[in-house]
Amino acid sequence: GQNIDQPTEMTATEGAIVQINCTYQTSGFNGLFWYQQHAGEAPTFLSYNVLDGLEEKGRFSSFLSRSKGYSYLLLKELQMKDSASYLCAVRSPSGNTPLVFGKGTRLSVIA
Amino acid sequence: DADVTQTPRNRITKTGKRIMLECSQTKGHDRMYWYRQDPGLGLQLIYYSFDVKDINKGEISDGYSVSRQAQAKFSLSLESAIPNQTALYFCATSDLTTSEQFFGPGTRLTVL
C-alpha cells in the first residue's frame, strides 16, 4: 500500500525557521521529492533525496531517513513569499509507476 | 517559452457538456500525467501515459478519458461534465531516469 502523511497546516513567523515533516509507508522506495505550490499555481521542484542525510540548498534543506520512513523540509529565514503548500512525493523502486504525492502542508508565514 | 503548456487556462461550462483540456510539452519526455486538485486538497491522479501507445488509469479516472496524440500531446476529456468536476487540472511530464515531474500552469474548470 501507499501512505504518505504530512501535517495539514502550519504557521510560522517571518525570519524564523520551520520544519515540515513527511512520513511514508510505501511498497518500495527509491527517492523522495519536495515541491512548493503557491495558491492557484503549479507545483515547482524544490529537492530530491535518495540517500540518507541532509541536502542543503540556500535557505531550504531536506533530510531523509530511509530506515524510519521519514523526511523533513527545513526552511530558514522565512519570508512572506514562502507562504505556500509543500508537497512530498515518493518514487517507486522501478520508476515505472507515478510518484505518490502526500496531500501537502499549507504554510502561512506571518509578520 | 513554457516547457509544458495547457489550454484553455480557464473554462466555465454547463452540466452535460463535453469538454477537452489540452496539454503540450517541449521537454521531449515520454511520460505525461493528468491530475486534478480541489481547493485545499492534494493532487489526485486521473490518467497517465508512459509512451504514445500506453494509457493507464489513475485513482480517479471515472468520468474522464484521455488521448495521447503524439509524444508531445496528451488531452483530457470530460464526456459529460458534472458540477463536482469543478477543480484545478494540471498536466505534468516526467523524465524517465529521475521521475522528477514538471507541471503545466493548470486549467481552472468550473461546471455550472
Order of helices and strands of chain A, N to C?
Answer: EEEEEEEEEEE
The biggest sheet of chain A amounts to: 6 strands, mixed
The whole-angstrom Rg of chain B is 13 Å
Number of helices of chain B: 0
Which term fits the overall shape of chain B?
A: globular
Care to count the β-strands of chain B? 11
Q: Unreliable segments of chain B (pLDDT under 50, ≥5 consecutive)?
A: none
Describe this structure in words.
The complex is a heterodimer of chains A (about 110) and B (about 110). With about 110 residues, chain A is mostly beta strands. Chain A has no helices and eleven strands. In chain A, strand 6 and strand 7 (about 60-65) form a beta hairpin. The radius of gyration of chain A is 13 Å and the shape is globular. The mean pLDDT of chain A is about 95. In chain B, the strands form two sheets. In chain B, strands 2, 4, 5, 6, 9, 10 and 11 form a seven-stranded mixed β-sheet that branches. A four-stranded antiparallel β-sheet of chain B has the order 1-3-8-7, with no helix packed on it. Chain B has strands at about 5, 10-15, 20-25, 30-35, 45-50, 55, 65-70, 75-80, 85-95, 100-105, 105-110. The radius of gyration of chain B is 13 Å and the shape is globular. Chain B has about 110 residues and is mainly β. The interface of A and B includes residues 45, 89, 98 and 102 of A.
